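job 3f2a | input accepted
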Amino acid sequence: MTIWMIGHSTVLIEAGGKRLLTDPYFGLHGNPAYARLAPPARRREDLEDVDAVLVSHNHFDHVDRAFLRSLPETTPVFAPTASVFMTRLKGGRNVVGMTVWEKQILGGIAITAVPARHVTFTVGYVVEAEGKCIYFSGDTYFGAFMEKIGREFKPDVALIPVTTYRIPMTMNEQSALCAVRALAPKTVIPIHLGIRPRLPLLRTRQTPESFRARVRQAGLASEVVILPEGQYYKP
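job 3f2a | predicted structure (235 res):
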C-alpha cells in the first residue's frame, strides 16, 4: 500500500492492485478568495487510468470538472448520495451515491462512507486493503462520530484537514488534535494545505509543523507525517 500526495486534498492510494484518487483538484490558480500555493504533483492526464475516485463534497478545491470529464465511463466516482446530481453536473459520469456507513467492494478493496460535518453535503471514506485501513476525512469539523470510526476501524492512517487560516471551513490545529485523540491512528497525514486566503488578515501562524508539535506535547502516540506534493508514504 502506498499513499501519494498529489496536492491539497488530492491523494492517490495504491492498494490491492487498485488506484484510488481522493477529491481531485488540478487547478493552478485557486479562485478569487483563495490562492493555490503549489501546483499538483501530477497532471490530469497522468491519473486518468485510476480505478475509482472518492469525492467527499463538491467545493471548487475538491472536484475537478475537466478531470472527471476525462475519465472513462466505466470508472466509478463515489460521492455522497445527496450530491450525486451536482457531481454529475461537475463532470462525473459513472457517479455512485453512498450513504453513511454504506460499503462498496472494488476488487480486493472495501470502501466505506463515514460521517462528516461541513457546510454542504459531505462524507468521509474508510479504505481497507492489504490488512491496512486508511481514513480520508475530506473537509470536516471535529465530531463525536470520529470516536466510532476509531473504535470500529482502528485506522492505520488518518488523512485529516489541518487548516492554517481563520475562516473555519474545516478543522484547525485544536480541532485536529481532538480528532487525533478520538481516532487514535498510528499515523496522521495533514491535508487541505494547498490553498490559503489571498487576504493576509485571514491567515494564521499555524503550520503543519506546529500541529505536529502539539500532538507530541499532548503525549499522543500517533505519528504526524508531513507529506509534500509528489512524496509518498507506505503504512
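job 3f2a | The chain has one domain: 2-233.
job 3f2a | closed
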